[in-house]
Fold these 4 entries.
Entry 1:
Amino acid sequence: MLKLQDLTKAYRTDEVETVALNNVNIEIETGEFVAIMGPSGCGKSTLLNIIGMLDTPSSGHYFFKDEDVAGYSESQLGVIRKQHIGFIFQSFNLIDELTVAENIELALLYHDIPAAERKERVAAVMDKVGIAHRAKHMPSQLSGGQQQRVAVARAVVGNQSMILADEPTGNLDTAHGQEVMEMLQKLNEEGTTIVMVTHSPSHADYARRTINLLDGHVVTESMRSKI
Amino acid sequence: MMKLGNYMISAGRNILKHKLFSAINIFGLAAGFATCILIMLFVKDELSFDNWIINNDRIFRLELISHPPSTKTFELAATMGPLKPFIDADFPEVEETARLTYQDRNIQKDNDYFSENVAFVDNNFFQIFGMSFLKGSVGAALKDPASVVISEKMALKYFGSTDAIGKELIFSNNHRYRVTAIFADLPRTTHFNLDIAIPLSYSEFPKNDERPSLLDDWFEIGTYIYVKLKSDITADSISNRFPEFLDRRGPRPNDQIVPSKRWNLKLVPLTDIHLKGSPTARIKPKGSMTTIVSFLLIAVMILIIACFNFMNLSTARASLRAKEVALRKVLGAQKKDIIFQFLSEAILMAFVAFLLAMVMVEIILPYYNVLIDKVMEIGALHSPITLASLIILTFIVALGAGAHPAFIMSGFRPSRILAAGRSEPVGSLKFRTFLVIAQFTICISLIVCALVVYSQLTYSFNRDAGFDKENLLVLDHINDPLVMGKAQILKNRLLELPEIKQATLSSVVPADRMVALIGFSDVDGRKSDPILLRIESIDPDYLSTYGIKLDKGRNLSPERGDDIARLYGEPQKNGNILINESAVTKLGFKGADDALGKQLIDEVAYTIVGVIPDLYLQTTRETTNPTFYYIDQEFYNKLTIKYSTQNIDTLVNDINDIWRELFPQVPMSQIFLDEKIMEQYKADQEQGRLFLIFASLAIVISSLGLYGLASFTAERRIKEIGIRKVMGASVFDVVRLLVWQFSKPVILANLIAWPFSFYFMVKWLEGFSYRIDNIFVIAFCFIAGIGALLIAWITVASNSIRVARSNPINALRYE
């Protein structure tokens, strides 16, 4: 699916240069479920942003489906991103002024899909995550868990092959967190590649592989197979 | 007090911290204030006419209402000169009356001659108006028939100092007048002009050529009669006796009806003359109440726009200040403290804006004066009452504009804001959208007004008037006794100049205000009510000089004795005449062919030998008059020259040389015809220009507000924009989204503004007899609408592009 080679990301201000990622080499296969862990400020989010093509590396290579996208422009990245990658955020990031259905539809809106087909796919995905009865509600009328389910629906409605989840359970209580993790697991079983940043070791257990980051370096990688 | 200091510090720092928004806020409000102050200066000036005159509540002008047969009633500022002694005799309620009339006189200074508009006044004129003299005594000044009273300006012009008592002014080369008094120049806000005044009185003034004939002639109307009533007498109490008075004392019109059927009189209060007096035969152009009202309306609207900006930007900024408010509340601030804080901030801003506005007015005033042809001074603002009312206005604006954000912000619940870390959207979006709609409704209406006024003016200048307007120079003073006899010689001498193609002598030229009328009740043996025709004495070159083509018949030629007629003076002489097309209709002929050879019969008969097209001699407000053209060589006032040269200065010099050679004692006075025609639209042009300026100002202020609002909205929607970008929206998609958000209110504003401005502008156009088609008003509505939309787009887009380009991850951070 993707391969990061000698990838470095540095932020520069007038006085200080902060290295967020240093010489990172990671390979993720299609259909994998990978968790990225590490303390605050270790570079997890930066790594996820680069994988998600929301940010560009300072140096190194990023092969996405064998294509080196490291030097691509914002708009080139945008084209690849909207085809292949879905996002789930800790703070859900739903648009307050749009209904549940409209929020989900947003992911199809910029894809030249006819309105009728969009409606169909939105309806289907809402059924799948169990929020069809909330279609006309505004995000503020939903619980956190429901909001995150909407976000999950939005991430997969475009048939994206990879989902990047940035602490998807961070704002949720245990029960709701569990619910979202099970949903991600199910998606993974159906073939979607998932890369997830998390602080919670129990949630990281859902992944088959965990990458530990510290100060911009990959420190350990551990494989786990469910018994 | 400590608290207030803290608020002011916080307010000051806040203003400095958000420089762009503070600048937009303060500058917008200042521009609004400045416009208001400028308009108020104009209005104050217009309303202050004749206020300086003592006892102005007891002084009235006697004006004439004329009901001519077969024509509309019209009102004249002047009336019949011979009425005065009868008013004095018949109305015991009248304390005194005084007459004023004007004639041009040539006055000699060393070897130079100046044409002056001389006022002929009754002895008591200066007493009635309570004027005092710088030199000389009010009671004695005009006792001697050969005395002259002059203004300070004239004293300086002719004698170099105000030390001029006893010195002589020589009029028309042979009449000597002795200066007996000097008065201070009249305030500009006086409805009459007075520079040189000579006495006018029945008993003392000999009947000579200096005595204006309109004093004795009932039908030559050009005398202004001022009436001072005894105290506690109302004008109404004597006006109702005017019809009976006219029947007893007035003249018999030749159609044998009682005078009161033909005329009436009215008393116009002195201070109303400028704005409400009769429109015709005025000394100075009439002020317009409509203009005052519409400008006041514009002032209020621009102030509202500026206030809306203030409200809009302040509430928008409130979201950024939520945390400050929350902390103040946590530390013990009450709701009223927060309200007080934000109101004091609004007041601080408003006063900074007010000071800035005063500076702006000071800078703009000289240009504004030129634009509206006034001489107003900033000093007019320095009276305590004006200043106080401006400061009160500033307070009202500050409270009005500051109240909304103050109450919104004071209502924040600190726990929510501090917990969320990120502020909630503040204020109702609907309310803000409403403000934007209101602003743009006003802007669009003003643009439509400006466009309609301008295109009607353009139409007025450019319409086919039926004659050439280009390359025509008009010489005045042909009726001066010294010139009159040699007018033909002058014409022939001028025609020798190679640049001069044609020249014609005539009683009037296009755009002249003077109108002579004659009524015929016998048209070729057909008796009827008198039909009024405008009369114009021309010469045979009139048609060729003005490029007019005969419809039917032939031109007049002085070589034929029967082509010379006489209407004025004794005896009338029959002769051939030309008439225009509307006269053909008015006189009841079937067509030009039918009219030829027919006679108009008064005491003698005038035979129609030719018909010419209607000429548009007046403004587009007036309809064309049925006109009667004839040749009477003693009735020429103007000489029109058709020239063909680029070198105008040389031409005028050459003409002047010939004039000075022939008439060394008469100053030459010339005007280009196209300029003279333009001059008639001066007030409209000024109004059009002001509309344009106010419309632009309204747009600038609204755009400033929109820019500020758009950037706040973009900030507020930054999360949404981030999400949309992550979902695949391009920069263009995002810009379109934001721009569309502001297009909706502008489109709505259009829908509101169009019917209003269409209605009012069509009403305005109805004041013109010849006007642009209503379809243009509709077109201008569209143009104004699209213009406003474009301006809104440009304003919003620049900002939106910046926001749309920013990296979404910044917006989606949750830390």
Entry 2:
Amino acid sequence: MRAFSYEKPANPSEAVARAAEVEGAKFLAGGTNLLDLMKHEIEAPAHVIDVNGLGLDEVTETEDGGLRIGTLVTNTALSAHPRIRRDYPVLTRAIAAGATGQLRNKATTGGNLLQRTRCPYFFDTNMPCNKRSPGSGCGALTEGAFSRQLGVIGTSSSCIATHPSDMAVAMRVLDAIVETVTPSGMTREIAVEDLHLLPGDTPERETALMPGELITHVRLPAPVGGTQAYHKVRDRASYAFALVSVALVRQADGTGRVALGGVAPKPWRRADADAQLPNGAAAVMSVLLDGATPTEENAFKLTLAERTLAAMLKEA
Amino acid sequence: MSPPIGFTLRRRTLLAGTAAAALTHSMTRDASAQTAEAPQPVGPQTSTVTLVVNGTPREITVDNRVSLLDALREHLKLTGTKKGCDHGQCGACTCTVNGERINACLSLAVMHDGDEIETIEGIGQPDNMDPMQAAFVEQDGFQCGYCTPGQIQSARKVIEEIRAGIPSHVTGDLTAEIAMTDAEIRERMSGNICRCGAYANILSAITQVAEENA
């Protein structure tokens, strides 16, 4: 790990001001992903701004009947919150499907959204990776590479990494909104839909956040009701990243919403695919996965996604 | 509390010496790799923090990079908390901070100024074991023992977490009381790996404690 200086500001405006003025600064919340990456020297901040002193660790009710979640609310606390369990069960299910008890106790809401890919070529610093080292190439797209876990849609010839979060898939299906404070101290809102960028030619650019911009809250609109479920398919029963995951909200009349995890650089959802829900899993996936460019190793994900949704529709 | 361990010459010390030699090499490499334009730290690279470990405030001055795990083991000589993978995957370093279990390897000591930390040394001692420690002995919940401190830390918290109604991946009804089932315990223990494969007996030990104080 590279040496760094450290500070723990007491309010968000101080935190973003420092991030703006100190070159090479990085926010640290739970640290479960950032510290791991710092040990690999994939991240090497010269200055660490610990945001754990900012408050921002409460869940409050909003005027429209929704919830406003402080960015530092832990994954455990969020999954166990009575309102989340009752009104947004797909979110509890998604969080509980990820990581371990120890990690969920430390990982935060904002940090979960901003966690980085677990693509093995991103982690192996001996391999090329356009995300880690722009212009070096994509190790996952070389002859004989292992791409079983990697993306099938929304990817590019520069990068086929997936976004690893389960929580973000539920946030996407619930149309969550991210609230931030910018380096100049202004607040703004970004729909979760627009938070993560597709790789294109610049896979090193992962989010719509500007340098030094801090997530302060994540807002959930009023509950959408329906039957909610999150189904995660993985190589072992616990503590593994998704091959495919499906977040589903299904209303009594058969309409609803579907988002996928494990297949794309961001939680994957399309309004025109949602509209196909009354027509069944195959109809949804023919739209949702239209234009997919899987590798030979991960083409199975297309079939797996459809069958997972079909199984869920049978239960819902 | 255990006395500090005196590091005499033995295999572990020899390995540490070898590692130090390797470190010198890698530091040279790092220095040459650093470009003049790379951002540099803008303040002290060490911090003084007070960790309240097993009820006793302990002030230490550490490099900002020191993990909570290394602070416990190398600075406070509390070697009961084990280093396995050092990347949050094995759970050997599990200890509790302000009553919640975390991976001590994925947290910095500097982040825990004033926090209450409980390690395996604070839970019980050979002549005065915690019920979970006694149950692990009784049920033969380990072979080599390396993962055991982390297993015991997690095990104690798993019972509390189920009773507190924190849902897991295998929980059925999210609004009902959570039952203390084998499936619940296994799922919640998935962050603690046992290379010897003592899982069945670990489950027995946890079940025994849960039933004893039901």
Entry 3:
Amino acid sequence: MSILVQNVSKSFGDFAALHDVSVEIPSGSLTALLGPSGGGKSTLLRVIAGLEQPDTGRVEIEGVEATALPPQRRGVGFVFQHYAAFKHMTVERNVAFGLSIRHKPKEEIRQRVQELLELVHLEQFAHRYPSQLSGGQRQRMALARALAVEPKVLLLDEPFGALDAQVRKELRAWLRRLHDQVHVTTVFVTHDQEEAMEVADEIVVMAGGEVKQIGSPDELYERPASEFVMSFLGPVTKIGGELVRPHDVEILTAGTAGARPALISRVTRLGFEVRVDLEVEGEPAWAQVTRGTADHLGLKSGDRVWVLPHKVRTSVAASVGETPPAS
Amino acid sequence: MTRWGLRGVALVYLAFLLMMPVGVILWRTFQHGFGPVTDALTTSQAVHAFRVTAIVAGFAVVLNTVFGVAAAILLVRHRFPGRRILDAVIDLPIAVSPVVVGLALILVYGRNTSVGGWLGDRGFPIIFSIPGMVIATTFVALPLVVRAVAPVLEEIGEEQEQAAATLGASTFQRFTRITLPSIRGALAYGVVLALARSLGEYGAVAVVSGRVVGQTQTVTLFVQERYQNFDQTAAYAAATALVVVAVVSLIISRFLRPRGGER
């Protein structure tokens, strides 16, 4: 295990940010801490980095007890949402910072900085100041700076959160490729399930200061441990009191075992997919079907049809007080 | 129309309050040419007064710089019981009359008090000597560095320092390599203001110094004492010297003043 977090709790005044959290992160993996804001994921990352002290529990990094170590002795690289660029230094000196602190020879620093700037495609910006860079460039600089000291683990706190959608998509793919090149154990915090699913090998779902589920993106999507995880990881709808993914709702023109009668209230064509809004036993629900299916069945609003939900998740596991995100 | 009216009012106001008095001093100083001015400023008494002012202001500025940065970091970066009280107390020297400050210092450090007596017995008198004047001057100039530095510390936030920590920087390295360069402009501005304030301090110093000519006389005290002894040439000359230093400090501070969006 590269990172071991055991029974960590942390409160800020009355607010319990982390409650008895235990997580193991394997070496060389790319893990996402996913959850709604205020769920404790950033606090957990900061506890791992040593930027916050846990009230109870312990942290181990690469087999070394790290709970009492200050951040500068943990061997972690940390990337902040708002870059935390050293504004009074050029890009080159930002990246060189960790090495010059360690009094490495000048020539070695120069070479390493050059390599890293090439890795993050900033070689022509070496002599600029952070204020002369775009958000995406600043974040790549911050990443190069964190990688310069060859950290045992790389921690990214909502690294793309402050960037616009297009740049965010590019950087995601780029982070994935970078990780395949560098192989450093990486943990990143995000509240964007799509980002987590796209980039991470493993996802730790957190909410209310607790770990809700740990698993690969497929496992979480296919076998969510709770209604919360299910609704956080993708769209859901409720049919007969049970949660189901809209694309797992089959629409039939004739009744069959397990099917429920429904009334189509609206059909929205979104390119390849079609969103069918329904009324099932007086409750609103929706199904997602392909254009082909919709055309084949000739669905239109006002039609009376039957719906058959597959792979439903019975709501027994749902605990009190868990609210799915509004989206 | 109103714009011109406002400008006119501002100009007249400044003219009567500031420009005319300063102008008259300059004119009076140089009305007989440079000779008498140089003579008046090179008497041993005058030279000594300048030296005392330099020593007192020098110590006060150094103390206030160190304390000011430390207090600003404490106020901005730390949460502790009594923080708001400290925050309020720092502005006290602006509210309290310097004369009151001087009297208070005599009550605490005077020869007849336990603290002052104890120190005096060990050859370290506070009141009627340089240490008391340094304390008084430090006190009146206390808020200037803190108030210049604190907002900038607030604005730059903690993340750069935290980033430096994860990159291996010790507390000292974070301070010298990240914090200090980030507040450099504001700190210089605060230091210049503190210097100007320290050079011009009169009330508190007048009370604690005992105004011993040739011993505890600063330039401001020298101006007052010369004027009262009808040596107007020396009084005007020294006053002009003070004005020149103050104006130069303010011009420097204009250039150092932190501008919005500085790099």
Entry 4:
Amino acid sequence: MFTEHVLSLAIWLPIVGGIAVAATGDRRAPLARDLSLVVAIMTFLVTLPLYTGFNPGTHAMQFGEDYAWIEAFRIRYRLGIDGISLLLILLTSFSTVLVIVSAWRVIQVKVSQYLAAFLIMEGLMIGVFCALDGILFYVFWEAMLVPMFIIIGLWGGANRVYAAVKFFLYTFLGSVLMLVALIYLYYQSGSFDILAWHELKLGRIPQILIFLALFTAFAVKVPMWPVHTWLPDAHVEAPTGGSVILAAIMLKMGAYGFLRFSLPITPDASHELAGFMILLSLIAIVYIGFVALVQEDLKKLIAYSSIAHMGFVTLGFFIFNAQGIEGGIIQMISHGFVSGALFLCVGVLYDRMHTRQIRDYGGVANRMPIFASFMMLFALANTGLPGTSGFVGEFLVILGAFQVNVWYAFLAGTTLVFGAAYTLWMYKRVIFGAVANDQVAGLQDIDAREALYLAALAVAVLAMGVWPDPFLNLTHASVEHLLQQVSVSKL
Amino acid sequence: MTFITANVLPAAPEIFVFSMACMILIVDLFLTEPRRVVSYLLTQLTLAGAAVLTVQGLAAPGYAFNGMFVADVLAGVLKLAIYLVTFFVFAYSRDYLRDRGMFRGEYFVLGLFGVVGMMAMVSASHFLTLYLGLELLSLSLYAMVAFQRDSDQATEAAMKYFVLGAIASGMLLYGMSMLYGVTRSLDIATVRQAVSALPPDHTLLVFGLVFVVVGIAFKLGAVPFHMWVPDVYHGAPTAVTLYLGTAPKLAAFALVMRLLIGGVEHLSASWQDMLVILAVLSMGIGNIVAIAQDNLKRMLAYSSISHTGFFLLGILSASPNGYSSALFYVLVYAVMSLGSFGMIVLLSRAGFEAERLADFKGLNQRSPWYAFLMMLLMFSMAGVPPTVGFYAKLLVIQSVVNAGLVWLAVAAVLLAVIGAYYYLRVVKLMYFDDAEDRSPIAARGDVKVLLGANALSLLVSMPWIGALIDLCRQAIQGIR
């Protein structure tokens, strides 16, 4: 019973729990906090059997569920995971616990709604990663916008309304074209089964149109240059938890979409447009790296760094070799940890100083040594230091790029310089030096709660950097299968 | 005698509602002001009774009045939806009317006459029945819009509505007379046969068709025949707008189905082109102009125009798949519209109309529950999953793609994104802005329950959407 429905449980437990949290109302914040933490931890525990019971030897979908839903259009409630989605689901359930903990004291307005929004979003995000029906996928994908819209707009910074509306409309616009493509695929194949679409023969022009329609949806979410402009706004204005979820998981959805939809459904179009995709990825890596260098706002800097790192992911996917794709996947997970951790670090500072401007800081290490060392680790991981998770993905992607074209590898490699430059320079200005002002002088170091979630992330970052095999092994079979699908022409 | 009963039986619900309306009219004369509620209760009872009769009638579909009247599955489904929606409308309006001294028997009697008109429309198998039903509905609506006698706005709206409605009826009649001239019949089935024997580019037929489509477009409020919609929605008392913006949409759908699909489906190549223009213009103008509105009633009026455009997309796919999608869309729209106007009625208090967008500011601070319900309604209108509004749009879009009009599907979804903006603005006002007025929201218990059920149905009906779609398909099957 349990193993048959573990995916459904992972989706619906947080959603139902979120509704229960919302029902506690505005006046019982402690109850809402406790309840949501319990739900988040339970969900994390529910997703653990996915890891222990997963068979890494096969690319077939596991933990499958399949029920009739809208029979008239053969839309089914169909779930299942492979190695790629498994990692992302674990990342989701892990990050949500941290986000709930991080909101413990910071959020004081409409607490139950805030926590409920995150729990509901967790369920929807897990749904995205395990849906195997086109419409089911789309429902989860779009429904997620609603809680995120509320999170940014209600608990965000000064310019939150603008950012929330921009976020919603931008991503909504990206997605609706995907809907048309999904319907088109339905009429070509006779069902909304994603796995059946993988086998579906398609002509060149339909493939290219489908690829472009899917591209608008996924590229906006990733986000790829030049449709990235919503991200800095959304990140800067969102509350800490919102930024963490955005960076750690939502951006991964676009990348996941490329792997689950674009590459296997339209392999020929993917090959034909690979040059275009690689170009956009390299622009993201190089140009956005420069942009990050000049940012004066901490969150904006990390947001731009996210775009550059996601450029690595898409670069890895579109060079079509095992190193590239596996590197991209590892980079996704690693970036989930690292950027989440950096946003949490900024949150720690912001809660104390209520400013995100780099120039307002300086010499924080003198007052917050423990915090400074944690942030050091995450900053170095962000630059791709060997021994941290950031290194594994970038290394694999560059390795894969070398096999295709030395110049790709060269341009991608510049990130090691720029990444180090903007991250460490930011770190230096914020953490080192003499104490800059009275506010910094009055800083208190992190408490046990903050240390807890930063330590959890630090362990994850180091574990993945030192011994990435448990992560890589999960994806081998799925990536092999994916590569094989991409290499066979559908024309 | 047996002959007469057999012939009249399919029309039993209509006869029942009509008799009850007359009775309530008389009973109301003898009621003192504090006991006016009896009229209200009798009205609701009438709707419930009609529902029972209609459900019984579903078992034995058939014709009545020499084939002028049909009780088929489509009619049954639409009638039940009309009763349900009207039941909610009356329940929502009760306090609103009482606060404004409009809690009079006439409102309910006119409402019931309107219901009879709608019922005749959905059950028409003859152009005359259709026209009779349409006029009965329209005349009731004109009177209801002018119900607040001392309001200039309402009087102006009623005049506009009356004049334009009369023009529309004239157009429709003129078109029908052309069809009659060619086919020598007003019976829809006979017209259908006669038309299919003629070439689809028969000049006189197409000429008549143009007037029929114009008449329908006027009644539906499709661009460019939409100018009355915002004024009437805005000018009428909100309780009347609530009535006018919900159930008559279902009847209008029946009008389209009986006339265009039942009668002249053979000419689909001609009306398809006309509907494409109407649909694209309606979605475009409706969605764009709605952005500029600061009055919620006007905004919802423009939103109804854009929804009309969307449902026309389903019709113009000219396939059973498209018609059933359009039916589903209209049913969902009626529920959404009901909830949204119900919300305005709920927030309005004695001497205060909560119809400006600004009146929704900070609703989340005043009442998270109502804010949540309104958010559901708005997201459903915008077609955001997982609300039912999304599935309605999905169905229509898939029928358009199926008809080979992919460009139209792309245009529709892009215009829907524009539309999302103004729905989103309502959510923004409710959640992100501070309340100007922090008075608590008082509502009767029954309204609370009904409004909650109304809005939540958009979310919790998700697992049963497949069954609903099957029902719509079944309803469409019977029509041809």
